[in-house]
Amino acid sequence: MNWKAVAAAMAFTGVAFGPVVAADGTHDARIGMMKQIGGAAGSLAAIAKGTKPYDAEAVKTAVTTIAQTAKAFPEQFKPGTETGDSEASPKIWENIDDFKARAAKLSTDAETVLAQLPTDAAGVGAALNTIGGNCGGCHQLYRIKKD
Asked: Keywords for this entry (predicted)?
């Protein structure tokens, strides 16, 4: 195994286990978890676009990261954590049940992808469309874009 493969495996392992470490309900934890999901989605996008070769383990790791992080993510929005300079909209706390349901759907959709892991770049692209649709819908409602 070459050093690039080892480095990639270590990076993906860090992404996969990050939610356990970062889940403390702070703004920084939320940002860290979003970055984990974004990084995993970016890995999938690179495979779907063909800029990285298809790698079943990389796909599995990225989708697992999304599934696990989405489960833990809503718990980072406890009452009293809505203040501060954040991209998190106050609508999250006003509609916490919807927010939790959206995160659960993302996790469930990611688990469905895991159960029938895509076998090529086209399959990864199709899975990413579903997963990304969940992300985009939530961001539209619950994210304040900062310039």
From this structure: Electron transport, Heme, Iron, Metal-binding, Signal, Transport
Which residues are CB-contacts of 106 (< 8 A; sequence separation ≥ 6)? Answer: 66, 67, 70, 131, 134, 135, 138
pLDDT digit string, tens, across residues 44-67: 999 999 999 999 999 999 999 999
Neighbour-count burial of 5, counting CB atoms closer than 10 A to its CB (0-12 exposed, 13-18 middle, 19+ buried): exposed
Q: What is the pTM of this model?
A: 0.80
- Mean pLDDT (the chain) is 85
Which architecture does CATH list for 3-142?
Up-down Bundle (1.20)
What are the boundaries of each domain within the chain?
A: 3-142
- Phi then psi for 38, rounded to 5 degrees? -60, -40
| E-strand stretches of 21-110 | none
Q: What is the CA radius of gyration of the chain?
A: 15
